[in-house]
Design goal:
The complex is a heterodimer of chains A (433) and B (176). Chain A has 433 residues and is α+β, with helices and mostly antiparallel strands. Chain A has 6 helices and 31 strands. Chain A folds into 3 domains: 75 residues, no CATH class; 222 residues, no CATH class; 125 residues, no CATH class. In chain A, the strands form 9 sheets. Chain A has a 6-stranded mixed β-sheet, with helices on both faces. In chain A, strand 5 and strand 6 form a beta hairpin. The relative contact order of chain A is 0.09. With 176 residues, chain B is mostly helical. Chain B folds into 2 domains: 100 residues, no CATH class; 73 residues, no CATH class. Helices cover 70% and strands 0% of the residues of chain B. Chain B contains 10 helices and no strands. Classes of the chains: A alpha+beta (433), B mainly alpha (176). At the A-B interface, helix 3 of A face helix 4, helix 6, helix 8 and helix 10 of B.
Chain lengths: 433, 176
């Protein structure tokens, strides 16, 4: 059995498809064919009519359970997708240390790239997933699949077909499945030039901008570094050397290839994301999803307006914890209506409180802060703690601010901080003090 | 169990002293001491103290119940969503965000619909975003469209309702 695309291209059906069932479902802008079912697994082909571009394209969606639900979608956008001619989706495979070793097109064609193992041996053309059993790769001949660290990998399509340990990713949803990604919380994300952020170069697509349905920018994901290869027609590939987002707090991904995730995310410093980090899968103009990211965070789950370098992220996390620690001293009637902001400038510990906070709360925290040798200020009027702190000390070498509110800075303050390119505001999103 | 009322009062007083340590650095060790009390006795005493005249004690009881015995604690704590003190309702919503489960959904829905305090409605939406399911969608949508309230720093309740809806939808999508 094989899958034939609308424009005549052919994708071999996965070999784990044991039973053949055909059903057709038509909705407003798509036709779905359930063409294969094996146990609880299924394979769905949909023809989409994009509401955004008007383009018609195919989407192949694989669903595997293997004990936990997961799926993979592959979009065929061969022609004229948003003006990108001769688009050809393909999946890049990287070996365990990140070298590009194989490109796979949707029709199953593949090219072999030069690659070397850690000892300098030319291993191009070899099946690198099989060569090192110590890394946990197992070949299941009956299924023609690899089992890699608890995940299934399909060499036919060059992709993992089950999620990583972080779980609940998805992609390809929405009418414009290629150019946009959907953030788990309902935000949309798009690649963005990083030049405007003052980073190293202007390679398009290094910044991921995410926004809500009203077009308000919600946050940015940081810049990638350590790319072994970058190619761009309005997009990027991240291959080789591992993909690292700047900002230890932010995120890291271990070995990443467009062929799928080769390893579980690697921890680098305090960079493993916490439970509150939301998972994102990234598409770009040229390629199907090639890596995923999580909202910036540290292993404590501390969040910030944007990823930062590791030192700043660690400082921000400690400040957020400090703010929460002060907050803990307040009674509940005091805490409701109070925000505490904390920073350190060289040897100075500076703590502020919002203008509307109860006097008893201000007196209590002032006493504690002063006992620690710090400085305490309550904002005048209705000024917010973090806003006041920045206005008073922003020009004195302020690197990061921690705030006690579980939602972080309010939208007005967050907009202000973004407008002055100060993103290092950190908070702990858990409520309990 | 306790033999007489004097002994019971002594125990209650001891538990009360431990709960008063909630805003100090000794809270962790106080919780540990509470955990060491025979569980049925502890639950009985904490349940009784949910109607303590001191609102800070009521908050402390709620937190202790959810930290020590969330399974049995949640139904007991839900009574505090109708507490006359708004900061108690606010705090309990936050606790339900962190420790709650589906049993808390209906009381939280009631709060987002009817609570007079916008800080409470705001955090009730936040909690529903964390633990809510499809039942909460319609009420949240109503809040999103109709609630003009803001929390103490100007965050809109309606925006939090929108965030909660997105969280629930994302979670439900993953479940199916």
């Amino acid at each position: 059995m094989q899958i034939e695309f609308a424009r005549g291209r052919i994708l071999p059906a996965p070999r784990y498809c044991f039973f053949y069932i055909r059903t057709v479902r038509r909705t407003n802008n798509r036709v779905s064919n359930l063409i294969c079912k094996g146990g609880t697994d299924w394979l769905l082909r949909e023809t989409w009519h994009s509401a955004v571009s008007g383009a018609v394209f195919d989407l192949i969606r694989y669903q595997y359970t293997n004990g936990r639900p997961s799926y993979v979608e592959i979009a065929d956008v061969q022609t004229d997708f948003l003006g990108v001619k001769s688009y050809d989706a393909r999946y890049m495979q990287a070996n365990w240390h990140g070298d590009l070793v194989r490109r796979v097109w949707l029709n199953g064609d593949a090219s072999i790239e030069t690659a070397w193992d850690p000892w300098g041996n030319d291993v191009h053309g070899s099946h690198y997933y099989r060569w090192n059993g110590a890394w946990g790769y197992m070949w299941f001949a009956a299924m023609q699949l690899y089992y890699v660290h608890g995940r299934w990998y399909n060499p036919d399509i060059g992709r993992f077909i089950s999620p990583d340990d972080k779980g609940d990713y998805r992609y390809g949803s929405g009418d414009d499945a290629i150019n946009w990604v959907w953030f788990a919380a309902g935000l949309q994300c798009q690649f963005w030039s990083d030049l405007s952020f003052g980073y190293y170069d202007n390679t398009p697509g290094q910044i991921l901008k995410c926004q809500d349905n009203d077009g308000n920018v919600s946050f940015y994901y940081g810049q990638t570094i350590g790319r072994g290869l970058s190619n761009s027609v309005g997009g990027m590939e991240v291959l080789g050397g591992g993909l690292t987002f700047m900002g230890g707090g932010a995120l890291t991904v271990g070995l990443v290839g467009a062929g799928g995730f080769v390893s579980v995310p690697a921890a680098a410093g305090g960079a493993v994301v916490g439970a509150h980090g939301a998972l994102v899968l990234v598409h770009n103009m040229q390629h199907p999803p090639i890596y995923y990211a999580r909202k910036s965070g540290t292993e404590q789950g501390i969040q910030s307006l944007q990823g930062a370098n590791r030192d700043t992220a660690n400082l921000g996390a400690s400040l957020a914890n400090k703010a929460k620690q002060y907050y803990k001293y307040l009674s509940d009637s005091e805490a409701k209506g109070t925000t505490i902001a904390v920073t350190r400038i060289r040897d100075r510990l500076i703590v502020t409180m919002n203008g509307g906070a109860p006097e008893t709360a201000a007196r209590k925290i002032a006493t504690i802060v002063k006992a620690e040798g710090g400085e305490f200020y309550q904002a005048p009027g209705s000024l917010h703690a973090e806003d006041f702190l920045y206005q008073q000390f922003g020009g004195q070498g302020l690197d990061a601010i921690g705030v006690s509110n579980f939602k972080g800075p309010c939208p007005t303050c967050a907009s202000f901080f973004r407008s002055v390119n100060f993103f290092n505001v950190y908070w702990d999103p858990t409520f309990v003090r | 169990m306790l033999n007489n009322s004097n002994q019971r009062q002594e125990y209650l007083q001891e538990v009360r002293l431990l709960l008063e340590k909630r805003h100090t650095n000794e809270w962790s060790s106080a919780l540990q001491q509470l955990r060491e009390i025979e569980r049925p006795l502890l639950l009985a005493m904490l349940t009784e103290m949910l109607s303590d005249p001191d609102s800070e004690i009521r908050d402390g009881v709620a937190e202790a119940l959810l930290r020590i015995e969330p399974g049995a604690g949640i139904p007991r704590v839900l009574s505090l969503t109708k507490d006359p003190q708004s900061h108690v309702r606010w705090y309990v919503c936050g606790l339900l965000h962190d420790f709650g489960d589906e049993r808390a959904i209906e009381p939280l829905i009631e709060l987002i619909r009817t609570d007079p305090d916008s800080d409470v409605r705001y955090i009730a939406c936040y909690a529903l975003g964390e633990i809510g399911d499809m039942r909460a969608l319609a009420p949240l949508q109503w809040v999103q469209q109709n609630d003009q309230g803001m929390d103490y720093e100007g965050r809109r309740v309606s925006e939090m309702a929108w965030e909660a809806i997105q969280s629930i939808l994302a979670r439900e999508h993953d479940r199916r």
